[in-house]
Design goal:
Blueprint (H helix, E strand, L loop, with lengths): L14 H9 L4 H8 L6 H7 L5 H13 L3 E5 L7 E5 L1 H4 L1 H12 L13 H10 L11 E8 L9 E7 L4 E6 L7 E6 H8 L12 E4 L1 H11 L2
Parallel strand pairs: 3-6
Antiparallel strand pairs: 1-2, 3-4, 4-5, 6-7
Helix pairs in contact: 6-7
Organism: Actinoplanes couchii
Pfam families: HxlR
InterPro entries: HTH_HxlR, SCP2_sterol-bd_dom_sf, WH-like_DNA-bd_sf, WH_DNA-bd_sf
Length: about 220
């Protein structure tokens, strides 16, 4: 097999060109995107990145680990489960992902009707996250999302903390105690935080606890 030439081999010393050598191939940034909120197994990535074949995924993960963007490690405990996760340097690609998203959302051909994976939707929320107006102490929301593209898979859990300084959202292994607990499909939650559909028109979204906190999470993260 003939080795793929890099931009550097054409005497192009531009750092942006080198970045494209590292992450510019088809599927690479999509795989990175699915690792931004935490490690995943190979099977998890193949499930979440619809359309990618196992051979391509293997090659992209090999390239990412070879270039120091990601690592493969074995989790402690029984089962010898191996996961892929981004390095500290690789995690800095969230800024690139957010900037690309903010740029592309202005595209006249943006497929707003298409579904998103749970992590992708939460990354969009993080891109647009804003602090709350000055007021009471931190508010917390537990968000559980079911992937509308493949509803037989397990739901994914997140925890949001909202203050007058910042709004943060992280993936967590199980629902966390919070002021408000929200359960939704990715299709309904996307309609709410990206499409602007009011909660009252989305009966599939269930909220327990303080509904006002859920409304504030939407206000703090909506497109």
């Amino acid at each position: 097999m003939v080795a793929r030439r890099s931009y550097g081999s054409y005497n192009d010393g531009c750092a942006a060109a080198h970045a494209l050598d590292l992450i510019g191939d088809r599927w690479t940034m999509i795989v990175v995107r699915e690792l931004l909120l935490g490690p995943k197994r190979f099977a998890d990535l193949q499930r979440d990145v619809l359309g990618i074949g196992p051979g391509i995924l293997t090659r992209r993960l090999h390239e990412l680990t070879t270039h120091g963007v990601a690592v493969r490690r074995r989790l402690p405990g029984p089962g010898r489960v191996e996961v892929y996760e981004l390095t500290a340097w690789g995690l800095r690609l969230e800024t690139i992902n957010s900037t690309l998203s903010a740029w592309a959302v202005q595209s006249p051909t943006m497929p707003f009707e298409a579904d998103m994976s749970p992590d992708t939707l939460v990354l969009a929320m993080r891109t647009h996250a804003r602090p709350l107006p000055a007021g009471p102490g931190p508010l917390t929301a537990s968000l559980t999302l079911t992937d509308s593209r493949q509803e037989t898979v397990d739901p994914v859990h997140y925890r949001a903390i909202m203050t007058s300084d910042a709004t943060t959202i992280e993936r967590v292994p199980e629902p966390a105690r919070a002021d408000a607990t929200i359960t939704a499909s990715t299709r309904d939650w996307k309609a709410c935080v990206i499409g602007g559909t009011p909660l009252s028109q989305l009966p599939g979204i269930t909220i327990t606890g303080d509904r006002g906190t859920a409304e504030l999470l939407i206000t703090a993260t909506a497109l």
